[in-house]
Amino acid sequence: MYYNMIMSDYTKEVKLESANGNHPRTEDEKRLIIEKATKAYEAYLDALGFDWRNDPNSTNTPHRVAKAFVYDLAAGCYDVPPKITSFPSNGYDGTVFQGGIPVKSMCSHHHLAFTGVAHVAYIPSQEGRVIGLSKLNRIVEFYARRPQIQEGLTVQIHDAINEVCEKNRGVAVVVSATHTCACLRGIKHDGCEMKTSKLSGDFLEDAATRSEFYNFIANMKH
Fold first, then answer.
1. Are 112 and 179 in contact (CB under 8 A)?
2. H or E element: which one contains 117?
3. Which of 147, 136, 153, 146 is nearest to 198 (CA)?
4. How far apart are CA 161 and CA 14, in angstroms?
5. Total Cβ atoms within 10 A of residue 154
6. pLDDT in tens, the chain (222 residues)
7. Pairing of strands 96-107, 129-131
8. 188: alpha, beta or left, given left = phi > 0 and alpha = psi -120 to 50?
9. Which letter, b or e, does each residue of 19-52 get, where b requires 16 or more Cβ atoms within 10 Å of its Cβ?
10. How close are the terminal C-alpha atoms of the chain, in Å?
């Protein structure tokens, strides 16, 4: 289960529990991790043969890198997951779409960034549940902030929405991102964009519904 559900008469509070090793840490625990990681990164730079101690711009780099991982790049692994509250749909059974959600993540192969956007949608049933629009952003952010592959991120976002929006008639997720591991190393090609998708329910089975979702993406204002 991705969620721990707490029931009430009208709302349902849903708390994301885990994804790719989510272990919420206190501020004291985070500081200890940063301290240990700083020392380890010093040794890493030494092993690479960098004269970083004599470079005024690099003397504090090990600490900066460790802090960036804990508070930014892999924050989803250390932060308390967001609480997601759902509500009855009140009979609404049309598409709910949120596009252009920022994705800032990094590949688990080389720990280099991939960035882009996520487009998500779901169709509640008349007896189903909906969530606040910003919660879709929070779900994407939670799963993005960790080392992973884009394919896995796409599935995790889909499964999370599918579970919290109970009795839905379909969920659709498209992630479009540029990977610096392809730009800075290997083939070294700039401008390439990777797209991944995960569709279920009506989005997968009904061509008109699927077309509506992709039209929403195509007609977004940039």
1. yes
2. strand 113-122
3. 153
4. 11
5. 22
6. 444 444 444 666 665 555 567 889 999 999 999 999 999 999 999 999 999 999 999 999 999 999 999 999 999 999 988 889 999 999 999 999 999 999 999 999 999 999 999 999 999 999 999 999 899 999 999 999 999 999 999 999 999 999 999 999 999 999 999 999 887 888 888 888 999 999 999 999 999 999 999 999 999 876
7. unpaired
8. left
9. bbebeeeeeeebeebbeebbeebbeebeeeeeeb
10. 36
Helices 27-48 and 61-68: crossing angle in degrees, nearest 10, is 130
DSSP structure class, residue 186 = T
What Cα–Cα distance (Å) separates residue 139 from each residue in 65, 145, 163, 206, 212? Answer: 25, 10, 12, 26, 23
Alpha-carbon distance 46 to 172, whole Å? 46
3-state secondary structure of 5: strand
In the β-sheet with 171-179, what is the strand arrangement from edge to edge?
147-148, 96-107, 113-122, 171-179, 194-199
Query: What is the DSSP secondary-structure string of 15-81?
Result: EE--SSS-----HHHHHHHHHHHHHHHHHHHHHHT--GGG-TTTTTHHHHHHHHIIIIITHHHHSPP
Beta strands 96-107 and 147-148, pairing class: parallel
CA angle 25, 162, 23 (to 5 degrees): 10
CA 135 – CA 26 distance, rounded (Å): 23
